[in-house]
Amino acid sequence: MDKLLRVATKAGQVILMCGAETYRVEETIVKICQAYHVEEANAFVLPTGVFVTVVHEGKTHSLNVRINKRSTNLNMIDAVNKLARSIQNDPISLEELDRKLDEIIKAPKYPWYIVDLFAGIGTFGFAFFFGGDFKDALCSFVTGCLVKVIVDYLESFDVSSFIYNGVGGFFITLMAYLSCQFSLGTSADTIIIATIMLLVPGVCITNAVRDSLAGDLVSGIARAVEAILIATSIALGAGVAVSVIRLLGGVM
Amino acid sequence: MIKLAIASFLATLGFAIMFNIRGEKVFYASLCGSVGAIVYHLTLNVWHYNLFLTMLYTSMAMSLYSEIMARKLKAPVTLFLICGLICFVPGGTMYYTMMEILNNNTAGATALFMQVMSSSGALAIGIVVVSTVVKLYYRIKRLGGVKK
Known about the structure:
The structure holds 2 protein chains of 2 kinds. By secondary structure, chain A is mainly alpha-helical. Chain A is built from 10 helices and 3 strands, in the order ααβββαααααααα. Chain A folds into 2 domains: about 1-105, no CATH class; about 110-245, no CATH class. Chain A has helices spanning about 1-15, 20-35, 75-90, 95-105, 110-130, 135-155, 160-180, 190-195, 200-215, 215-245; strands spanning about 40-45, 50-55, 60-65. In chain A, helix 1 (about 1-15) packs parallel to helix 4 and helix 6 packs antiparallel against helix 7 (about 160-180). Chain A is elongated and about 75 Å long. The N and C termini of chain A lie far apart (about 65 Å). Chain B is mostly helical. Chain B has one domain (about 1-145). Chain B has 6 helices and no strands. The radius of gyration of chain B is 18 Å and the shape is globular.
C-alpha cells in the first residue's frame, strides 16, 4: 500500500515538474491508484505540492510532496501518460512500474549545446515573425544563444527565477542596443522582442487561464502569480538596461 | 504569408527542442506554429478582424490541429500545442508596456497591459472551446455506438 502511494505520487510529481496541467496530474495519480484496485483515491494538486489520499481495506493512507522546481519537458509528460494508460489494460507489478518510472526520469535530454543552438534558431525565426530583416535575425540568433547559456547557468545555481529572468532581460536589451550601435542590426526593438520570447512565461500564462477555466482555481491563481512575477522581472531587467543606456547618453 | 509560416516554424522548432520533444513529433509540433501563423495572417491582415478575435481563431485552429495530431500519433495534446502557442504569447506587447512605464506614460501602459491580458485570455479560451467540443463529439459518438 505504501509502495503504491509512493509510486503514484512520484508519477504525479514528475509530470507536474515538467509543466503538465493540474487536471492531468490529478487524473494520472488517480488512474494509477485505481489500476491497483483501491476503494477510493483522491489527489489534490497545486503547482507547489501534491497531496494524495488512498482508502484501502478500511484504512486511510496519505502522502504529500513539496515541489520547488518547475521546468518544461514535454517528452516526459508523454511517457508517463502512456505508462499510466497502459497499466489500465495490462497491469504490471508495482516494482516494475517503479522501475519504468525511474527509466523515464533518467531518459536522456538534449545536450546543452543543442538546446542553446535551437534557442538561437527559435529567436532567428521570431525576428522574421516580428518583421525584422536578415541582419536583425542574425543578431537575434547570437543574442538568443548567449542568453540561453547565461540563464541556464544561473538556473543551475538554484537562484530565484526573479533574478535570472531579470539578468536575462538586462542582457538582451544591452546586446540589442550594442548590435544596433555598431550597425550590425537594423532595429533594436525587433531584436529585443524576438529574444525576449525565450524568457516570456508563455506556458505559465496559458496554463493559468486553462486551470482556472477547468475549475482548479487555486492552481490558476498560483500560476498567474508566477507568470506575473517572471514578466515583471524581465521588464525590470530590460528597464534597468534602458535607463543605464540613457544615463550614458545613448538613445533608446 | 509563406515567410511568416516559415518564420514561426523555425521559432516553434526552437521551443520544441528546448522542451525536449523527440523523434518525428518535433516536426509535427513545429508545423503547429505554421498553422497558427497562417490563420493569424489571414484573420488579422486579410480579413482585418481585431486582435482579440484573431488570437481566438488562431488558438482554435492550433488546438484543432493538435487534437487531430494527438489522436494520430498517440501523444498528449499539450505536446503539439504548447510550442506553437508560445509564438503568439504577447511578449512584444509586454515589452512595450514596460517601455511606456519607463517613459512615465501610465495611460499607455495600462492600455497595453489590457491588450496583453485579453490576448493571452483569448488564446486560452480558444483551447478550452476546442477541447470541450472535441470531448463532446467523442462522447456523443460513443453514446450513438451504444444505441446501435
